[in-house]
Amino acid sequence: MANTAGPLNGIRVFDMTLAMVGPWCAMQLGAMGADVIHIEPPVARNAGQPGRPGGSIPGVPPSINGNSIGYISWNMNKRGLTLDMKDPAHRANAYELLKTCDVFLMNMRPDVAGRLGVDYETVSQINPGIVYCTVTGWGQTGPMRDLPGADGQINYFTGMSTTNGEEGATEGELYRHSTQMDATTGNYACQAILLGLVARKRTGKGQRIDLSMMRAASALQTARMAEYLARGTVNPGLGANAQVVAPDNAFMAADARYVSVAATSEAEWAKFCKVIEHPELLDDVRFATNSDRVEHRNELNEILKPIFASYPVDYWVLQFRRNKLPHGWLMHWDELRNHHQVMANEYMVQVPSDQPWGDVWTGGPPYRFSKTPAKWFATPNIGEHNEEILAEIEAHRAGSAGRS
Questions:
Q1: CB neighbours of 179 closer than 8 A, spacing ≥ 6?
Q2: Does 240 reside within a domain?
Q3: What is the mean pLDDT of each run of 10 residues along the chain (404 residues)?
Q4: What DSSP character marks residue 204?
Q5: Contact 2/91 with Cβ under 8 angstroms?
Q6: Same domain for 372 and 268
Q7: Cα angle vertex 12, ends 9, 18, to 5°?
């Protein structure tokens, strides 16, 4: 019989986060059953309103009924509480709440926690068992520690842009999935918090965890860094081509849609040549091995382009599927949402909400637990659970006074 509670049932998170990195991490913890209490200042959120944690970039859409889509998308699976940390009464409530928490999470510049009275020294005195996690752009030390860090700047600074670009380009370009560094860092933070909880169970002690977007971006590029350190050069832009396999590219089909395919072994290369009805390529010395095909990638692509242009995408997808070759095709969101594979695996779910923004489609949890299922529920409005959580704080305060 499956337990309806998630694997983190009983864990409480003090989520003092903004923008995407921290909220994304806390949202994953909430999906796994943690009671995530998302803290916001006691003011109404307007999309693009400067200085509002989790809000969108000032003056830049999109929003739904005045609410930032970023806030809606990254703060699901939480309860909402407003606290003004400059107000002594609110700060006292925060400290009482922290006594009941297992995790503290914050992604602001290094000195902000101290100014708000939630630095590690203060919080760990209040609750020695807490797993205290901070995420910054550039780290806790060094000449750039106090600078703000955002996805694009981290992308450029860490060299990730040098591995992207049009085919043959010598200058890199920004990775166009503009939240790659945010989500990656958030995932690392979630992983680190889980490890911190495991360590606490073993040792009985909480600890401090520091992450930075810069370090997360560097970890993501381990293979590319190793190539540079080994050769001293960076490959020019490869467009849709893979770095170490050929063919592994996207080709324009007859209906002006892209289809991608890869031959990751010699057996797949043989099947690929059969599918495209050009077995003579198997005897071409330029393409004898994968190393040869990578070396002569441009020549191979020029041969393949007119071949792919002779049939529509559906034809190629059918052939590749029959022959079990790795493939994909350019799919738009409407098509993706209704695709049978997506629906069968619940890769996209509709989350009911009675908030002004209404029901929301989202990617949902990327994992499935057989006995402790993950849950996904709607983003809270600002301060939606104030009365409920404040009542819990008062009950804890009264209980503590009764025991003293």
A1: 20, 151
A2: no
A3: 76 96 96 97 54 42 78 94 95 98 95 95 98 93 86 80 72 71 94 98 97 90 80 77 91 96 97 97 97 96 98 97 94 86 88 91 88 93 95 94 75
A4: S
A5: no
A6: no
A7: 125
The model carries a pTM of 0.88
Closest CA to 38 of 47, 50, 27, 49: 27
38 and 151 together in one domain: yes
Residue written as tokens 């091995």? 289
User: Among all chains, which residue has been given the structure tokens 């637990």?
Assistant: 369
Give the alpha-carbon dihedral of 314, 315, 317, 321, to 10 degrees: 130
- Whether 311 maps to a domain, the answer reads yes
- What's the rounded Cα separation, in Å, for the pair 26 and 193? 10
Q: How many CA atoms lie within 13 A of 205 on its CB side?
A: 4
Residue 18 domain boundaries: 12-220+347-403
Among residues 2, 77, 78, 10, which one has the least CA distance to residue 40? 78
| Domain CATH for 100 | 3.40.50.10540
Tell me the residue ranges of DSSP E strands in 213-263. 248-252, 258-262
Both 215 and 263 in a single domain?
no
Identify the domain boundary among 306, 336, 366.
336
Closest C-alpha among 386, 379, 385, 381 to residue 90: 386
DSSP 89: H
Q: Flag whether 1 is in a domain.
A: no
Classified as helix, coil or strand, 67 is strand
Nearest of 189, 158, 186 to residue 172 by alpha carbon: 158
